Automatic annotation (TrEMBL):
SUPFAM superfamilies: Nucleotide cyclase, PYP-like sensor domain (PAS domain). It comes from the Bacteria. Keywords: Membrane, Transmembrane, Transmembrane helix. It catalyses: 2 GTP = 3',3'-c-di-GMP + 2 diphosphate. The lineage of its organism: Bacteria, Pseudomonadati, Pseudomonadota, Gammaproteobacteria, Alteromonadales. InterPro entries: Diguanylate_Cyclase, GGDEF_dom, Nucleotide_cyclase, PAS, PAS-like_dom_sf, Rev_trsase/Diguanyl_cyclase. SMART domains: GGDEF, PAS. It comes from Pseudoalteromonas byunsanensis. Its cofactor is Mg(2+). Its EC number is 2.7.7.65. The chain crosses the membrane at residues 6-26, 189-210. Residues 371-500 form the GGDEF domain. Residues 222-284 form the PAS domain. GO terms for molecular function: diguanylate cyclase activity. This is diguanylate cyclase.
Amino acid sequence: MERRFYWQLGVLLLLTIIVNLALFYWNTVAVQKSEQLNSNWQQITSSNLEKAVLLAKLDQSMGYGGFIHHFKNYVLRRDSSYLLSVQTDLAKVYDHIHALRKLKLSDEEISAIDIIESTVRTYAQKFSEVQSERFKRLGVEQLDEQVRVDDYSAERAQESLRASLRNSYEHALILQAKLRNETLSTIRLGAFVVSPIVCFAAILNMIALWRIAVLFRERDVLFEVTPDSILYCDKQGHITHVNKAMEELFGYSKAQLLSMKVEDLIPESNRTRHINLRQGYSGNSKLRHSKKDGLSIIGLHRNGTLLPLDIAIASVNHGAKDFSIAIVRDITQEEELVIKAERDYLTGVYNRRHAYSLLEDELIRANRYRRALSVLLIDLDNFKPLNDQQGHLAGDMALKHLCEFLTGSARPTDVIGRWGGDEFLIVCPETAHLSAMSFAQRLVKEFAEQAEHGLTLSIGVVAYDFVSDQLSANDCVDQADAALYRAKSRGRDQAVMFEVDLMMTSN
């Protein structure tokens, strides 16, 4: 279900990207068309306006009140006051024609300007002739006849320029209308197609966000209600997140735990070892289980109580951050059950079943690594009379006293188990004949010195310098039992070594 959701989320993300790209493209096109519409209008308007202004100035400089008007007044009235006006207007006409030629013109417009300029030059030539002495002696009618210029073609040319200006403006209007329609079409496309898609994508995103929020809420609820204690820590061991069960397990509040390091929850004597273990787990995404790894993790409660823990650890890499997740269980009750299952309820040493299992393990180890091994089977002499005469309570106290004595005398690596009734088994790893016999004799001597009620020890000893893979736990016990039988038959209060040929044993 979760995988399907993430797949849907990926598809939604891809759809969102596509929709945003489409929206970006639509906005870009709309902006470009708007800019093009504005740019074209400005260019056409600017060009046509400049052309219209120059044509108006040209008409003004040439027509009524302009160059030709002053020229005719000068010819008819012979008034020299018009001379300067003619020259000034003529210069303006040339300036306007020159300015028009600088604009972007069509071939027809250039031809029309050529005609106008030719006519103006003809007038200018006549004006020069009129100022000569020969023309001053002529009458008005004769002078008018001499300087008359056919300017009909110039008028047609000016009309052609005005018509071209109107056509250009009308073309600009048509082009602007086309661009405006295209822009409106683009906007409508966005309004009726892109916008609904964007809204749909937004709704899908809202649904996805809602589902993500639900998942996070469910995760938080599950995180808090799970019976196992859970903590998150960074690479340096700083605790970053805990659930309610974690608070209850160690007796700290959430705020207190978040200000601590993982090692603060470990007894001080074990912290260095724990740091090494944690660093060994760091960066490994595989889930590791401390109990399966054969590790014994002890936690420290706020009140100082030691807690046997079972811990599952996984390391996670999230972007640039590395952190570890630990699931912690208090196995105090499990340890108590294990102890009850492995220990003798009265004496506290291993029971027969577990002692037998440990003997099998030691036989395998001794055979694999070619190590020596010894087994002692111990019987408490005169136990039955004590039990019958003084009762079971005295008998129980005697058995407890014996186990305390054996535990204090044996090595930490030795295995002590109650074999049945008043018989006890000691498995001594890496102990050969001489050492085993010396240990057994020491037990007999020291126990007799401090025991009461005439209690003594009879011990059967079997020792192997090399353990054959054919040797079983039953064989060991049988041989030790045979040696014990000899010790008891010889008068008790002694240790007897099982006499077995070394070569036969190794075979």
